[in-house]
Amino acid sequence: MRVGLVCAHPGPSRPDGSTVGTHQHLARVAAELTSRGHDVRVYERRDDPDLPATEERGGYRVERVPVGPARPTPTAKLVPYVAEFGRWLRDQWSGGWIPDVVHGHFWIGGLAAANAVRETSIPVVQTFHSLGTEQQRSLGAAYLGPQERIPLERALTRAVDIAVAQCSDEVDELTRMGLQRASVAVVPAGVDTEHFHPDGEAAPREQRARILSVCELSPGHGQEDLIQAMRLVGDAELVIAGGPAPGTLNGHAEARRLRDLAQRAGVGDQVRLVGAVPHEQMPTWYRSADVVACTPRYAAAGRVPLEAMACGVPVVGYARGGVADTVVDEVTGRLVKPGDVRGLGITLRRLLADDAGRFAYGHAAVDRVRCSYTWERTAGALERLYERVVRRRKPVEAA
Questions:
Q1: What segment(s) does the record annotate as region Disordered (predicted)?
Q2: Separation of CA 82 from chain center
């Protein structure tokens, strides 16, 4: 099967082979589908004129689309280039290589993909990765997305054959936006279990217990709740990994705000911000923790809890989105009502004092990831989904 993966953002796969954040999802899906015998091409926006226009990587082909400014550009600034991106794809697909199915990623990528195939019989699958309506409701004034995003996402749901949700909450949100339940399939992200596993080195730590939070340094990721909860935890350290490079934290507004909050809460000596950590080093940080805490206001995918669980570390998190889907309460960790800071602090304190419980949760977490959340399972589910939409669109031949 010929599969076109479309992402209007740059960077699902960089020249050095590294991938970051949600873009890692796209690069891994492409590699897994290729290993299953499919002909895969990834389309990303070219934001650096020094990068090659095309590149072979891991058996699939990366096509960098020369649309929009040749520099990093905020998502809101890419909306005027959607039609041009779609035309470029349509021209490419009018020649020898025509995809059997197109899979859009993020709302901008989905709009470009739908625009490219609107006069063809090529089916469109869409993964939003996040939804403007839910982010706006969860983040309130902290939501900074472009105003046109929400109506354009609603329009996109009417143009695709099927939408891929990454958690149960996202299914509910998509149906509220007008999609039929039969047109939504849940396909969670996978985990690289060869990279994330319990055996190996751990990052240096103090003798006291360690709680690890892995997230961006921006409002809405719940670090303030964790800092407030530390007053109830006792003698433990909270390590927050993520954000800018370590050497630039002093100049980062959110880092300063969180440090000030920790001082006002009386836990300044218990909270440590370490800045960005390279992805290849993350397993050592997970292994160094007694508990990983996941408290975002919005989380479509459960990447962080899954990586922690794959490393044998129990997770305490808010019962929402991808966290609620991946963490089994009292089996692989503990779930807390979203926003319940007191409950969060008490749960963390009790789990840190329960060595046997953490050991049991950690073993169950590893089993859950290896049985249900590998990239092979994710690719297999997408493969079956593609086959379904292609059969639905393919004309019935006369007997």
A1: 1-21
A2: 23
